[in-house]
Amino acid sequence: MALTGRAGLIALAGAVLVVLAPQPGLVFALLLGLLAVLIGVDLALAGSVRALRFQRQGDNALRLGDSAEVTLLVENPGTRRVRGRLRDAWAPSVRATPREQPVDVPPGERRRIVFRLSPLRRGDHQAVAVTVRAFGPLGIAARQGSHQVPWSVRVLPPFLSRRHLPSRLAKLRELDGRHPALVRGQGTEFDSLREYVAGDDVRSIDWRATARRHDVVVRTWRPERDRRVLIVLDTGRTSAGRVGVDPTSGDPTGWPRLDWSMDAALLLAALAAKAGDRVDFLAHDRAVRAWVSGASRTETLSALVNAMAPLEAELVEADAPGMVAAVLTRARRRCLVVLLTDLNAAALEEGLLPVLPQLSARHQVLVAAVADPRVAELTAGRDGAEQVYDAAAAEKLRGERRRITARLRRHGVEVVDALPEDAAPALADAYLALKAAGRL
Amino acid sequence: MSVPTTPRIRDRWRTWRGVLGTLLLITAFAVLMVGVSTPRPGGYLDAEGTGPGGTRALAEILADQGVRVEQVRTLAEARSIATPDSLVVLARPEYLMDDDLLDRIDELPGDRLLIAPFATVLDELAPGVTEGSYEEIHSREPGCGMREAVQAGNARMGGSYYQVTGPDARCYGGTLIRFRPNGRTTTIVGSGEFLTNGRLIEDGNAALAVNLVGTRTHVTWFAPRIPLGNEPPATLEELLPEQLTWLVWTLIVAVGLIAIAQGRRLGPVVTEKLPVIVRAAETAEGRGRLYRARRARDRAGHALRAATLDRIVPRLGLAPGSAADTIVSAIAVRIGQDAGQIRSILYGPAPADDAQLVALARHLDTIERQVRDS
């Protein structure tokens, strides 16, 4: 049950009568009685909210930063008109707009109500409840009730770095050459034998095959294909730190490292899938949070965004030995392990470095990290002693980062350390470089 | 498909009826207990008082004998019920101070019984009677020919002692007198103690009380609780028109209804697990503040020098970890400056104050820029 302002206004009008009447007590009692009767009548004549039936249609998934429409079908099987207001309750960060809408459903009919969701956060969001307030014909009182109309919307990572994909694919095609190359280079494998055509490099003639065939035959080469890339996302505490500026909402507190890493991982996965490599994905902090394996090349990207959508940074120290063990059990053949984490000296020295040899002995390891532009900003401060102290602290941090990078490189690990906006293209370039060098 | 989640009125009633029933039972029990056990209010000589000082017992005895005792608190009430053949008992004359008031009491018709009156009251209601000294209250013999007193025998009397010229009766050593000034019987007693619940069963107290009060079928028991007379100014409540009280009540109802209308929420409050917001740069900023708080110029200076060296050394074509002399001489050759000065900037003592630290940072920047640009 709910009231409208009219009930109060009637009482206020009654106040005038009470002042003027010779028997104010009686008028007061009559006023109370009148109000009770009006409210009772209005409630009795209002349409039934409980009997309403709801159905939903609309989008189930969207990228962070986009908006989705969810349609609510309201059916009134009762005998009285339901006229009032309707609210579809979602979590605040889903930003369902408008917050509430007018609804007017005659008996036996159906109405369609559209809400627009513009979520601010990644992950799965559930509809909480649909609440309807149905006013009576007098507009004094209303019936109110809630229904559970389940619906779930998955907000996927935005994959903003996809704008870098065309240029990286062009590089890949350059590498690939589209046509089999006659020159054997790094990162190529034997493709086929064909007849010599005038103009071919004589160095590529396969003399043994020529001898067998009574014809001059050349060997052709193509870039390596069907390599494996395993992307490992660290969802531990260091991934919660916010860096840069949130590109989806412009929030100056920044975007978690986890989200920047996901962006980079998606560009790498898209590129690798195009290059004909198999991409697997593992998210790990103290336990395996997500594992995607064996997705076909066309489905790699959608499988990955779906696996990433519900991931959140956990406020626990990542378990590096556990992560290495998980990788070793899952990746039996040699592959490129791309570890997206932070180059935090303390965390890496105690966690990853002791177990890194196990990993780098069997796989090519690439560590990618997102650097903090704010630290770079701090190092430039020279106005006054306070800024210089901050600059010194930032330099100390950068020095530690450089040292840990150097130590990783000594272990034969590739390191990509780039500012947030550059992280995804830098990782893609590192992958292309490894591929060109035939180190996959 | 949708499922209604708001409970039906039926279900709500089922949930709450137990609670409501329990509350109702507790309230009923409490009311009952209070009604049974609490003594009735009332002070000394109050006809409704059940305490030792009240006179409820006497009123009950008289009621059994067909005498109706009606207690009044104000003169207006007394006036409305007093008749010529009734008895007016002035139980608490000490509350009747005002001469005007006493004049009007004098105008009340019927007989009178004055209990322990003092001079002012006597002057108005019993002219000619004077108040004597105080007498101890104890059991006394009647010592007179008054029928009521003789029949009652000994009674607990005392208090004031009255003198009067030519009274009809003067008993218990002058603490009970009766006379008829102008056709109306006026009885005066020095103390009302023999009337009280606590003393009524002693000696002939009850008999004397019944004899004195039960002379008429109707008794107006005038026992004010607060001093009367000198009418106090009307209270604010009395001055306000009745409409105002009801207006306030109406406005309270209106405000309440509006509050309910505005306060009702459309649907539930939705909670959400919020993400932690930690800026990654907080560690760097925190460390900077620590340096600042402790004035850690040595550490700050060292960090700045190490960072500059890290960047310069590869540019000079030297291996990382080269000796200081090698680096200093390489820089001196590169930028054409005094090696001693460069050495003091890169490897000199820690800055002594904040100004020196800032200067060091600037010098390091200069060297780095010159190396880069050369």
Explain what you see.
The complex is a heterodimer of chains A (440) and B (374). Chain A is of the alpha+beta class and 440 residues long. Chain A folds into three domains: 1-156, Immunoglobulin-like; 190-223, no CATH class; 228-436, Rossmann fold (3-Layer(aba) Sandwich), CATH 3.40.50. Chain A has twelve helices and 22 strands. Chain A has helices at 5-20, 24-45, 165-176, 207-213, 257-274, 300-308, 320-330, 345-350, 352-362, 373-379, 384-410, 420-436; strands at residues 2-3, 53-58, 61-63, 68-75, 82-89, 96-97, 100-105, 110-117, 123-126, 129-135, 141-148, 152-156, 188-195, 217-223, 228-234, 241-243, 255-256, 278-284, 288-292, 336-340, 364-370, 414-418. In chain A, the strands form six sheets. In chain A, strands 19-18-15-20-21-22 form a six-stranded mixed β-sheet, with helices on both faces. In chain A, strands 1-11-10-5-7 form a five-stranded antiparallel β-sheet. Chain A has a four-stranded antiparallel β-sheet with strand order 2-4-8-6, with no helix packed on it. Chain A starts with a strand and ends with a helix. The mean pLDDT of chain A is 90. Chain B has 374 residues and is of the alpha/beta class. Among the domains of chain B are: 56-222, no CATH class; 286-373, no CATH class. In chain B, the strands form two sheets. A seven-stranded mixed β-sheet of chain B has the order 2-10-3-4-9-8-7. In chain B, strands 5-6 form a two-stranded antiparallel sheet. In chain B, α4 (99-106) crosses α5 (119-125), α11 packs parallel to α14 and α12 (324-335) packs across α13 (339-347). Chain B is elongated and about 145 Å long. The mean pLDDT of chain B is 85. The chains are: A alpha+beta (440), B alpha/beta (374). Chain B: Residues 50-213 form the DUF4350 domain. Chain B: It comes from Acrocarpospora macrocephala. Chain B: The chain crosses the membrane at residues 18-36. Chain B: It holds the Pfam family DUF4350.
